[in-house]
Structures are given as structure tokens and as C-alpha cells.
Design goal:
The complex is a heterodimer. By secondary structure, chain A is an alpha+beta fold. Chain A is built from 3 helices and 7 strands. In chain B, strand 6 and strand 7 form a beta hairpin. Classes of the chains: A alpha+beta, B alpha+beta.
Amino acid sequence: MAIKARHKRFVLIGIGLALVGLAAMLILNAFQSNMVFFYTPTQVDKGEVPKNTGFRIGGLVVPGSLKRGGDGLSVSFVITDTAKTVPVIYKGVLPDLFKEGKGVVAQGKVGADGIFMASEVLAKHDENYMPPEAAEALKRAKEQGKTLVMPAK
Amino acid sequence: MIPEIGHFSLILALLVALALGTFPIIGAARGNAIWMGLARPLARAQFLLIAIAFVCLAYAFATMDYSVTYVATNSNSKLPIQFRIAAVWGGHEGSLLLWAMILSVWTVAVSLFSKHLPDDMRARILGVMGLISVGFLLFMLMVSNPFERLIPAALDGRDLNPLLQDPGMIFHPPMLYMGYVGFSVAFAFAIAALLGGQLDAAWARWSRPWTTMAWVFLTLGIMAGSNWAYYELGWGGWWFWDAVENASFMPWLVGTALIHSLAVTEKRGSFKAWTVLLAICAFSLSLLGTFLVRSGVLTSVHAFATDPRRGLFILVFLVVVIGGSLALFAWRAPTVGRGGKFAVVSRESFLLANNVLLAVAAFSVLLGTLYPLFLDALGLGKISVGPPYFDTVFAPLMTPALFLMGIGPIARWKQSSLPELAMRLRWAFGVSAATAIILPVLLGHWTPMIGLGLFLAFWIFATSANLVYQRLRGTEQSLISRITSIPRSWWGMVIAHLGIAVFTLGVTIVKGFESEIAVRMLPGEVAHLAGYDFTFKGVDEIQGPNYTASRGQLLVTKNGIVRTTLSSEKRLYTVQNMPMTEAGISPALIHDLYASLGEPLEDGAWSVRIYYKPMVEWIWAGCAMMGLGGLLALSDKRYRTRKRLAKEGDLTAKEALA
């Protein structure tokens, strides 16, 4: 009887470990397939970006580039890291703090025509605050010494 | 002068906290009654001093003293008084002061309601809380002093972030902090037990009400935050898996595991080491959460570069608290002894499974929140992990957890029989499975996720009904006396579990049946959504105390009958020149109608978003029920009448056998 109880305990522990292992696998798998990488406009220009999965780009909205579609809801604008630019199309209402000349982050995919189709546009909630990804893009462009235009204030 | 008084009391509070963190603990180790006796007066003195500092800072805000840097950066002369006071915790330094203040409140509460504890235990608990306080006060005084002067004084303040200018700001942070910091009591109990080597059922009974209390605050705090995000951010979302939210959700998950594990430790003497480990983890995650949200590390891991001392202090503090307590655990845990044995099918097993699932869920949130930060800090690239990851992980983890939740309370302690459980729950299973299939078909839309969500929600409803029915039937007494003869903590459990069901139902319905449109509207134009007609009545300009706003009104009609008017504002807060959207919401039990004004387009047209949110209010109603369940459990008479402890001991033994 005692052996049976011990046997049972081992089975229980075994099942428990198997389930925890399964959960860990599930988590890591979900993690890997849902990571969204960040790229700068320069990297987009060089074609260093994934073709079929979504990613994020960041930078400044080029002043004067914001245009609205006929329905008043689809918009297009251009993101720059001060070295290269990427045209973006987005259908939806822009966040409150979206402004030309300010930092912005967009998530989406690049189409065959080189236009970034954004599914989400983020501009964070503080006037003086630059989204970290946007700041990173400017920094990298500056480090590579390829700055062509000064960021408009 | 007033800010200096505040600063000075903080310094005195640090000295008192140092004394509180050393003398009572040494006294407990040496059996010195006088040193142990110092704990209570020191706890009170500490509270008084921190309260003075807090009042001084609030006074500086109320009187608009812009010679204090913190006031000048987080307030403005046009800011209404209630937000000027709430601005005390609107920034980094003030939040730390609120944290320290709430810690001293909990410390005093423990000193007041611990007369029944052994002297050494009480001395150790208060001592550990004193040590935590030392960390926070030292941090504030060294690198984050809220009383720092600005010379020359600013003419006016830079204003509180407009996003925070909302009644939610007055309640949400203090509630959340009451929860975070409340886990310090459970933590202190655990450390005291490890130091003293006394970890028995009595220990679990003492720490249970404190842990439940903290959990109630945390639950309600998260609920308030979620509701606030829903109406303030203007996209109709109620949870974003944002790092700030995750920071509060991790301690909640572990805290929920802890209150269940404590129940087993109290009733059956099992899970002792695990309970202690959970108490340590719950508080460690609270600390981590506080610093994640308040240090600026989320904005940029390089934010510390502006003041590296801050980052270093935080890292050292976290390492000392978490590392130190885990080391103590590793050293002392083997001495706590083993608990009662239990079979593979027993209530203990079900609770263990629930605990493991909650812990794994907390780990998955931790991974998703911290991993991107680590990568960034190590310069390995920037990634983000959004809602898809958390959604993918949570559905398979919470499904078994909610399923087991229906069985656990019905299973017997120690040994239960699967066939018997299956017999007893077959109707509950049938009812919930049938509902999961039929209800969505009636509502006109069936997906596996809707079916699963409805099944789980109705499974908990049905098993709870079965549980209550079995417990109430069969005696000669009147129904009222049968209801009142059952301990309130049991009713608390039932209501909290029903809260989970209500929450699950709300989430399932809103995710499965919500709809939205974004349209360009001219005044007089009509948009259609979910059977309602929304007529745009145009926009008028209004003037707020510190903002100007365009207010757009939508007249809502159904079949020509006027139902309500939604009024949404586009505000411009003048000091920071920052735009904000105020959503117009018509909340109801069945569904919310939600509108938010987008941007002005040409010819007086506006872009407008309209959302149809069925049963979204049930999400918060479910959270409120969880909180209510916790409060009911706290009001159980065994926590109030300390003198009857011996008698209660008999009673719990009986319950355990029942």
C-alpha cells in the first residue's frame, strides 16, 4: 500500500512537470511568434526588413507630408529618420498627439510598392516626450553620419 | 519654510525607521522585551513624521509654492484644487512619498491590531516593515527629494500631465498602492516566520486577513485603472497589456495564488514553504512594479543615464530585498516541516494546480514585460511584445484554471473521488456546455473563443449554484438562519468566484460582439451602428478651467425614438499645449454606446469614432464582486473575536472534515 502511495506521488509529480513544461513551451512559442521588431527608415530603404511579417518603424513626421484621403479617414504621411524616408498609409483616426515634425511610431507591413501600410500609429502622451523608437531611429541615423536634413522642430 | 519642515520630518522618519528596523529584530533574537517593545511606539512615530511630510507637500501644492521643483513641474495655478492635491502623487518623487506614507499606515495598522501576536513575532514583523521603509526613505532623501527647492522660483508651474487630470487620478493610485504596499505585511509575516522558525496554522491565520485586505485594494485599484483607461484614452479599450498595467497585474496574479495557498496552510498545514515563497514573490513583484512604472525605465532604459545614481539605487535595493529574502528562504525553508498528506484527487491538489497556473501566468507576463527591456539595455535591438502574445498565452492558461475553480470548492480536503465529483457536477457541465453552444447561435455569431468563454463563465455559475444548494439544503432551520450560520468567509469565496464568472462573461461578450465605425460626419449627418442611428449635432466651443474644448454631440435614436445623447470633447490643455479626447459614453447593463471625437476636417466636418460595447460594464462589475467577496471574508467573525481562537480552532477542524 505504501509503495502504491509513493508510486502515485511520482505519477502526480511527473504529470505536473510535464504540464509545466508544456506551459513553458507554449509561452516561449507564443513569445517568439509575437515579437515585433523595430526598424529605422534607413533599414527599410536598404530592404533589411521582413517581407511578410509586421514590424515597427519610428522617426519624425515630415512637415507638409500629411494628406487626407477623400473619405477624410485614410491618411498618408512620410516618416523620416533624417537620412531616409518611408511613405506611410493609415486608415483610422490618428492619436491626439500626432503632429507633423514630431516623433511617431507605426506598426504594419511594407507592400511591394515600398509603401508602409500601418495598422497602428502611436504617438505617446506627452508633448515633450519622443517615443523611444523614434528617438532611436534619429540616433542611429546621426551615428552613421548620413543626416541629410535637419529634423524640423 | 513649510517644505523644509517636510524635508526635516522625512529625515527624522528615516532615523526612526532605522531604529524600527534594528532594535526590535535584535531584541527578538535575544529575547530582550524592552527592545521588542520599542516596535510599537516607533511605528507610530514613523507614521506621524511621514504624515507631516505628506501634509507639507500637499500644502505646497495647495498654496502653489513654485519654489519647490516638484510642485513647479507637476502643477499649475489654473489647475483645479482637487487635481492640485492629487498631483502630489502625479510624478516620481511624490509617488515614492505616497508609497512610504501608505507603508507607514500599514505598519501602524499592524501595530494596532496585533495584540494577540506573540511579542517576538510582532517585533520581527514591524522590524521588517521598518527596514523596507528605510529603503524608500533613503531613496527619496538621496536621489528623489520631493522638497527640493527651485531657485529662482518659477512664475507658474508646468502643469500636471492632462491625461492625469481626471477623478480617476484621485482614487486609482492610492488604491493601487494600498494593494502593492499591503503585500509588504504578508512579506513581513513570511520573513518574521522564517527568522523565528515558527510557521504553523496560527501564522497562516494571522497573515490571511492582511493578505486578503491588500488583495482587495489591488483588485479595486486595477479595476479603477482599467475603467479609467476605458473612458479616458478614447479608443474604447479596457486593457492594453501595457507594461504599466502588467506591473500591477503580476502582483495580483501571485497575490491571488497566495490567498488560496494561505487557505490550505491554515486549514491543512500544507504548502507552508510554497506560501512563504509566494508572499516573498508577491511583494517583490510589487516593488518591481513600483519602480518599473515610476523610474522612467519604460520610457527609455537609458533614462537612468540622466541620473545614474537613481538606477543604481533601485537595482541595489531590489537585489537586497529580493535576493536577501530568497536567500533567507533557501536557508530556513527546510526547517518549516512538511504539512498534511493529501491524495492526487483532493481539494489540496486542485488548489495546487490553480496556484501553479497562476504562477506560470505571472511568469509569462514578467517575461513579456521585462525581456524587451533587457534586450534594449544590452543593446541587442528593440522589440515590442504586444497584446497578441498575452492573448495567446492567457487563453490556454486560464481555461484549466477557471475549470478547476468550479471543482475545487466542491472537492473534499485530503481525499476526494473523481466519479463522485463527476456525478455531482454532471448537470453543471451539461448546462454550461449547452449554453456555450446555444447562446451564441441565438445571438447570431459563434466562434470557438465565444463558446469557450461562455462555457467557463456558466460553468462557474452552475458549479457555484450547486455548491450553495448542497450547503443550504437538508436541515430543519429556516433559510435565513441556514444562510447566516455559514461563515462569511465562505460566502466571500462564493461571491468572489461569481465575480470571476461575471468578468469572464463580460470579456467574452464584448470581445465577441463589439463593433465600431470610424466616419467623417457633417452636422446633421447620420451614422448607423448596431441598430442605432447617431445624428451628428455639430460642435460647439467650450471653456474649461485650464483648457479649451470643442464639444461634439451625437443624438442617439433607435427606430425613431430618442435614446440618449453622447457628448464627446476634444480638449486642448493650454499650458502644455496638449490635446486630449474625452469620450462620450452611455453606460448600461446590456451595452455601452461610446463615441469619441476625432479631428476637424474641411467644411466643418469631423472624424468620429463610434463603438458598440455589449456588456462591457460586466468586466468591472466582476472585479467589484471579487473585491466585495474579499471584504465579506474579512468581516468573518473569526478575524474579529480573537479571544475565541481556541474555539475557532475546533470549528476549522470540523470544517476541514466536512
